[in-house]
């Protein structure tokens, strides 16, 4: 299978930068080396994938339902084993990765309903045996970062869906990760809240110098957030293209109304459409 690597030529010049924090010469944070996945029931969830993610990059896996986005992200997290191929984090097999810390944010906030916001955010620190005073300080920092300092005593049910998702992100940030894996974290939220959280996420990423692997099926979200978009197709799940989004950071809402943005979005729409037609023709 050939894997197209696309860089759109734009009507007017834009700096072909990675995000300011990305260091393309540093050892990659994530290396996916011909990793593939067939589930026990025979489903070929993912044909072999090769992908490297550099420090400070924001890479989005974009594709329709069933194309293997979650499977790939869970393999990066070490929650699933590839059937073949390898995945390295900081140059070591996932299970032995010591070069940095990773955190996973799921599609639903998965909060303990009976526990306060601060207790929820402290959970991974309690599990890791972090002393209480240090844990409390880190929880306070993380809640401040997501704008929820005032809600530390609230129960999850008192918060909106967007705020609950912020708690979930704070819980991940409290562990001080270098690599953040996010599986459609804002997919269940209304569009306005989602756009706000997208902007906040970019700000957090640059402030904390995070490397992010993000799953979405929203073209808009992919173009706005990413330094690189990995386009995937279903049946069988596979990568069909990677597209650099050569728009400098910081990005704001003005980017989303620009012709550059529209060109990227149109390109991705065509890629996804073509991949789905190719899939249908193959069946
Ligand atoms: N545990 C499992 N056992 C068998 N098949 C599975 C399992 N998990 C996922 N699959 C199948 O593998 C394929 C890829 O699933 P995956 O959840 O990775 O896709 P996705 O792109 O994340 O989809 P969605 O956007 O709907 O979450 C699908 O056909 C799915 O039904």
Distance between the termini: 17 Å
Strand content: 15-25%
Give the cofactors and ligands: adenosine-5'-triphosphate
Morphology: globular
How confident overall, as mean pLDDT?
89
Fourth-tier CATH superfamily name: P-loop containing nucleotide triphosphate hydrolases
Fold-level CATH name = Rossmann fold
As for the number of domains, it is: 1
CATH class: Alpha Beta
CATH architecture: 3-Layer(aba) Sandwich
| Strand-pairing-aware structural class | alpha/beta
Q: Which regions contain 5 or more consecutive residues with pLDDT less than 50?
A: 6-21
Query: Secondary-structure element sequence?
Result: EEEEHEEEHHHEHEHEEHH
Question: Treating each run of at least 4 consecutive H or I residues as one helix, how many helices?
Answer: 8
Radius of gyration: 19 Å
Overall helicity: 25-40%
Main sheet summary: 7 strands, mixed
Q: What is the tally of beta strands? A: 11
